[in-house]
Amino acid sequence: GAGVSQTPSNKVTEKGKYVELRCDPISGHTALYWYRQSLGQGPEFLIYFQGTGAADDSGLPNDRFFAVRPEGSVSTLKIQRTERGDSAVYLCASSLLPGAGETQYFGPGTRLLVL
Amino acid sequence: GNSVTQMEGPVTLSEEAFLTINCTYTATGYPSLFWYVQYPGEGLQLLLKATKADDKGSNKGFEATYRKETTSFHLEKGSVQVSDSAVYFCALSNQAGTALIFGKGTTLSVSS
What we know:
Chain A is mostly beta strands and about 120 residues long. Chain A has strands spanning about 5, 10-15, 20-25, 30-35, 45-50, 55, 65-70, 75-80, 90-95, 105, 110-115.
């Protein structure tokens, strides 16, 4: 079946603009995660959804970042007043169930460049 | 807090050489441990995992053993191939199971 998909694959925006990044998880996966990966670094956790609710948003860097998953499937990561430091690859992952031993399946990422 | 430290790269090997990539961790409780791999131009994919102490994860000739006493999860392969060239990430799951904490990644380059 289809894996995790993310759109757009690339996004270029100007400082101060608003952007939305979309994630379509594997069908039937209840848990969804967002990560951010800067060049030469490992992914850093942003937020975790179980169903429709954000069960852990401790990784969001500040209140410019927000994410939703209104129907428990597709999720959107929203970044307001973008800054050059927000430039990174934003990764989405999903797992069938929540839990420490569950495998997370990653999407190809959205490469965000803030000019 | 939770953290993962893995050896700096790049690691450059000839085909059929033995590979070790070191990974140590700091965590509360007993996390699950993972190795993810990112091949050139592709997304992150799970290579192997271990969910409790002394478990050995294995896949595609790679192995790693969860060592609680040394808080380590070193990745090994007996004979690497050119196709193993990639970036390898060690990761642990936080106690609540809500997030993976990754190391910085180790780039492996295998030449024929």
